[in-house]
Amino acid sequence: MKIFLDTANIDEIRRFNDMGLLDGITTNPSLLFREGQDPDSVMRQITSMIDGDVSLEVVSTKYEEMVQEGLNLYRTGDNVVVKVPMTPDGLHACQTLSSRNIPVNVTLIFSANQAVLAAKSGAKYVSPFIGRLDDIGHDGMDLIRTILEIFRHYDFDTQVLVASVRHPLHVVEAARLGAHVVTLPPNVLDKMIKHPLTDIGLDSFLSDWRLLQESQK
Questions:
Q1: pLDDT score of 217
Q2: Of 94, 110, 156, 209, which cross-links 121 as Cys (Cβ 3.0–4.6 Å)?
Q3: What distance in Å separates the CA atoms of residue 35 and residue 134, rounded to the nearest whole number?
Protein backbone atom coordinates (compact mmCIF):
# COMPACT_ATOMS: atom_id res chain seq x y z
CA MET A 1 0.00 0.00 0.00
CA LYS A 2 1.27 3.45 -0.92
CA ILE A 3 1.47 6.17 1.70
CA PHE A 4 0.68 9.75 0.70
CA LEU A 5 1.01 12.70 3.08
CA ASP A 6 -2.04 14.97 3.23
CA THR A 7 -0.46 18.38 3.73
CA ALA A 8 0.99 21.44 2.06
CA ASN A 9 3.60 22.01 4.76
CA ILE A 10 7.05 21.92 3.15
CA ASP A 11 8.91 21.13 6.38
CA GLU A 12 6.67 18.15 7.17
CA ILE A 13 6.97 16.84 3.63
CA ARG A 14 10.74 17.12 3.74
CA ARG A 15 10.94 15.43 7.16
CA PHE A 16 9.00 12.34 6.18
CA ASN A 17 10.37 12.21 2.64
CA ASP A 18 13.91 12.11 4.05
CA MET A 19 12.87 8.95 5.94
CA GLY A 20 11.85 7.36 2.62
CA LEU A 21 8.22 6.99 3.70
CA LEU A 22 6.34 9.01 1.10
CA ASP A 23 4.96 7.73 -2.19
CA GLY A 24 3.08 10.93 -2.94
CA ILE A 25 1.24 13.99 -1.63
CA THR A 26 -2.36 15.15 -1.55
CA THR A 27 -3.27 18.80 -1.07
CA ASN A 28 -6.43 20.86 -1.16
CA PRO A 29 -7.32 24.57 -0.94
CA SER A 30 -7.79 24.38 2.85
CA LEU A 31 -4.31 22.90 3.39
CA LEU A 32 -2.74 25.54 1.15
CA PHE A 33 -4.63 28.29 2.99
CA ARG A 34 -3.22 27.13 6.34
CA GLU A 35 0.33 27.68 5.12
CA GLY A 36 -0.32 31.38 4.46
CA GLN A 37 2.10 31.48 1.52
CA ASP A 38 1.82 31.94 -2.22
CA PRO A 39 0.03 28.73 -3.28
CA ASP A 40 1.72 28.55 -6.70
CA SER A 41 5.14 28.66 -5.05
CA VAL A 42 4.17 26.01 -2.50
CA MET A 43 2.78 23.69 -5.16
CA ARG A 44 5.92 24.00 -7.27
CA GLN A 45 8.12 23.25 -4.26
CA ILE A 46 6.11 20.14 -3.47
CA THR A 47 6.16 18.76 -7.01
CA SER A 48 9.92 19.27 -7.21
CA MET A 49 10.54 17.53 -3.86
CA ILE A 50 8.40 14.44 -4.43
CA ASP A 51 9.00 11.75 -7.04
CA GLY A 52 5.50 10.30 -6.74
CA ASP A 53 2.08 11.72 -7.58
CA VAL A 54 1.05 15.09 -6.15
CA SER A 55 -2.67 15.84 -6.15
CA LEU A 56 -3.45 19.52 -6.73
CA GLU A 57 -7.11 20.50 -6.48
CA VAL A 58 -9.13 22.81 -8.71
CA VAL A 59 -11.23 25.49 -7.05
CA SER A 60 -13.56 25.99 -10.00
CA THR A 61 -16.99 24.37 -9.97
CA LYS A 62 -17.93 24.65 -13.66
CA TYR A 63 -16.77 22.16 -16.29
CA GLU A 64 -14.96 24.54 -18.66
CA GLU A 65 -13.20 26.32 -15.81
CA MET A 66 -12.21 23.04 -14.17
CA VAL A 67 -10.63 21.81 -17.38
CA GLN A 68 -8.68 25.03 -17.90
CA GLU A 69 -7.56 25.11 -14.29
CA GLY A 70 -6.60 21.45 -14.48
CA LEU A 71 -4.46 22.12 -17.53
CA ASN A 72 -2.75 24.98 -15.70
CA LEU A 73 -2.15 22.85 -12.59
CA TYR A 74 -0.69 20.06 -14.69
CA ARG A 75 1.99 22.44 -15.93
CA THR A 76 3.23 22.72 -12.34
CA GLY A 77 5.05 19.41 -12.67
CA ASP A 78 5.10 16.09 -14.53
CA ASN A 79 3.92 14.29 -11.38
CA VAL A 80 0.75 16.37 -10.92
CA VAL A 81 -2.59 14.64 -10.53
CA VAL A 82 -5.51 17.04 -10.96
CA LYS A 83 -8.05 16.71 -8.19
CA VAL A 84 -11.70 17.44 -9.03
CA PRO A 85 -14.86 17.14 -6.90
CA MET A 86 -17.42 14.38 -7.28
CA THR A 87 -20.02 16.47 -9.13
CA PRO A 88 -21.50 16.22 -12.62
CA ASP A 89 -19.12 18.94 -13.82
CA GLY A 90 -16.27 17.21 -12.01
CA LEU A 91 -16.98 13.91 -13.76
CA HIS A 92 -17.16 15.70 -17.11
CA ALA A 93 -13.82 17.39 -16.40
CA CYS A 94 -12.36 14.06 -15.29
CA GLN A 95 -13.32 12.45 -18.59
CA THR A 96 -11.89 15.32 -20.62
CA LEU A 97 -8.61 15.57 -18.71
CA SER A 98 -8.15 11.79 -18.63
CA SER A 99 -8.69 11.61 -22.40
CA ARG A 100 -5.72 14.01 -22.69
CA ASN A 101 -3.60 11.66 -20.55
CA ILE A 102 -3.78 13.95 -17.54
CA PRO A 103 -4.31 11.85 -14.37
CA VAL A 104 -7.26 12.79 -12.20
CA ASN A 105 -8.16 12.23 -8.55
CA VAL A 106 -11.91 12.47 -7.90
CA THR A 107 -12.38 13.65 -4.34
CA LEU A 108 -15.20 13.99 -1.79
CA ILE A 109 -16.52 10.50 -2.45
CA PHE A 110 -18.95 9.13 0.12
CA SER A 111 -20.64 6.20 -1.63
CA ALA A 112 -19.80 3.19 -3.78
CA ASN A 113 -22.03 4.59 -6.50
CA GLN A 114 -19.89 7.72 -6.69
CA ALA A 115 -16.69 5.65 -6.80
CA VAL A 116 -17.97 3.55 -9.70
CA LEU A 117 -18.99 6.62 -11.70
CA ALA A 118 -15.62 8.27 -11.09
CA ALA A 119 -13.83 5.13 -12.27
CA LYS A 120 -15.95 5.01 -15.41
CA SER A 121 -15.06 8.66 -16.07
CA GLY A 122 -11.40 7.68 -16.20
CA ALA A 123 -10.15 8.67 -12.73
CA LYS A 124 -6.71 7.42 -11.72
CA TYR A 125 -7.74 7.72 -8.07
CA VAL A 126 -11.01 7.85 -6.17
CA SER A 127 -10.82 9.40 -2.70
CA PRO A 128 -13.46 8.14 -0.23
CA PHE A 129 -13.51 10.25 2.95
CA ILE A 130 -13.79 7.65 5.71
CA GLY A 131 -13.33 9.91 8.74
CA ARG A 132 -16.17 12.19 7.74
CA LEU A 133 -18.43 9.15 7.33
CA ASP A 134 -17.43 7.93 10.79
CA ASP A 135 -18.33 11.38 12.14
CA ILE A 136 -21.97 10.97 11.08
CA GLY A 137 -22.34 7.43 12.38
CA HIS A 138 -21.44 5.48 9.24
CA ASP A 139 -18.67 2.89 8.91
CA GLY A 140 -16.10 4.51 6.64
CA MET A 141 -14.01 1.37 6.30
CA ASP A 142 -17.07 -0.59 5.18
CA LEU A 143 -17.26 1.76 2.20
CA ILE A 144 -13.64 0.98 1.33
CA ARG A 145 -14.41 -2.73 1.56
CA THR A 146 -17.38 -2.35 -0.79
CA ILE A 147 -15.53 -0.23 -3.36
CA LEU A 148 -12.58 -2.63 -3.48
CA GLU A 149 -14.93 -5.60 -3.90
CA ILE A 150 -16.70 -3.91 -6.81
CA PHE A 151 -13.48 -2.80 -8.50
CA ARG A 152 -12.07 -6.33 -8.35
CA HIS A 153 -15.00 -7.57 -10.42
CA TYR A 154 -14.31 -5.21 -13.31
CA ASP A 155 -11.47 -3.96 -15.46
CA PHE A 156 -10.98 -0.65 -13.64
CA ASP A 157 -7.48 0.79 -13.49
CA THR A 158 -8.68 3.24 -10.86
CA GLN A 159 -6.94 3.09 -7.48
CA VAL A 160 -8.74 3.51 -4.16
CA LEU A 161 -7.11 6.34 -2.20
CA VAL A 162 -8.32 6.24 1.39
CA ALA A 163 -8.72 9.83 2.65
CA SER A 164 -9.88 11.66 5.79
CA VAL A 165 -7.76 9.32 7.91
CA ARG A 166 -8.06 10.12 11.61
CA HIS A 167 -5.86 7.54 13.38
CA PRO A 168 -3.40 4.66 12.76
CA LEU A 169 -6.13 2.01 12.98
CA HIS A 170 -7.64 3.47 9.82
CA VAL A 171 -4.32 2.82 8.09
CA VAL A 172 -4.11 -0.76 9.33
CA GLU A 173 -7.68 -1.50 8.25
CA ALA A 174 -7.09 0.05 4.84
CA ALA A 175 -4.01 -2.14 4.39
CA ARG A 176 -5.86 -5.27 5.50
CA LEU A 177 -8.59 -4.60 2.95
CA GLY A 178 -6.04 -4.10 0.16
CA ALA A 179 -6.55 -0.39 -0.49
CA HIS A 180 -4.07 0.93 -3.05
CA VAL A 181 -3.21 4.19 -1.27
CA VAL A 182 -3.81 5.86 2.06
CA THR A 183 -3.29 9.58 2.54
CA LEU A 184 -2.81 10.81 6.07
CA PRO A 185 -1.95 13.98 7.96
CA PRO A 186 1.50 14.30 9.54
CA ASN A 187 0.24 13.71 13.08
CA VAL A 188 -1.13 10.28 12.14
CA LEU A 189 2.11 9.29 10.43
CA ASP A 190 3.97 10.35 13.58
CA LYS A 191 1.72 8.10 15.66
CA MET A 192 2.42 5.18 13.33
CA ILE A 193 6.15 5.55 13.96
CA LYS A 194 5.96 5.71 17.75
CA HIS A 195 5.30 2.96 20.28
CA PRO A 196 5.90 3.11 24.06
CA LEU A 197 7.60 -0.29 24.10
CA THR A 198 10.09 0.94 21.50
CA ASP A 199 10.99 3.85 23.79
CA ILE A 200 11.27 1.57 26.81
CA GLY A 201 13.43 -0.90 24.91
CA LEU A 202 15.73 1.82 23.61
CA ASP A 203 16.13 3.33 27.09
CA SER A 204 17.02 -0.12 28.44
CA PHE A 205 19.61 -0.76 25.73
CA LEU A 206 21.24 2.64 26.27
CA SER A 207 21.25 2.22 30.05
CA ASP A 208 22.92 -1.17 29.79
CA TRP A 209 25.47 0.23 27.36
CA ARG A 210 26.35 3.04 29.75
CA LEU A 211 26.79 0.54 32.59
CA LEU A 212 29.01 -1.58 30.36
CA GLN A 213 31.17 1.41 29.51
CA GLU A 214 31.53 2.36 33.16
CA SER A 215 32.51 -1.19 34.09
CA GLN A 216 35.38 -1.06 31.62
CA LYS A 217 37.00 1.98 33.25
A1: 77
A2: 94
A3: 27
